[in-house]
Amino acid sequence: MLVLPSELTHRQASGCLRMLVQGLQVLKGPEVVVDASALAVFDTSALAVLLECRREALADRKAFVVRGLPAALVGMAGLYGVDDLLQVAG
């Protein structure tokens, strides 16, 4: 399981994405699960990071699931029309 930090804004986006992609490369199994439950401070960069991580997972033929995504970020995803791309689980 990959874990998002408590803060993910434009400032942290590049470093966080690098960390997630490195983690994704060592994960075995058919599914990549990202735990977003610690995420408290974020902007739309968090969506960009998640979508790029999803792209990397799909390129590796793995399913991509996000758990614990804050309601406000789910709302942002809906506003931008990308909510269907993020498989959000409880």
UniProtKB/TrEMBL annotation:
Gene3D superfamilies: STAS domain. PROSITE patterns: STAS. Residues 1-90 form the STAS domain. InterPro entries: MlaB-like_STAS (IPR058548), STAS_dom (IPR002645), STAS_dom_sf (IPR036513). Pfam families: STAS_2. The keyword Transmembrane helix applies. It comes from the Bacteria. The chain crosses the membrane at residues 32-51, 63-82. Keywords: Membrane, Transmembrane, Transmembrane helix. This is Phospholipid transport system transporter-binding protein.
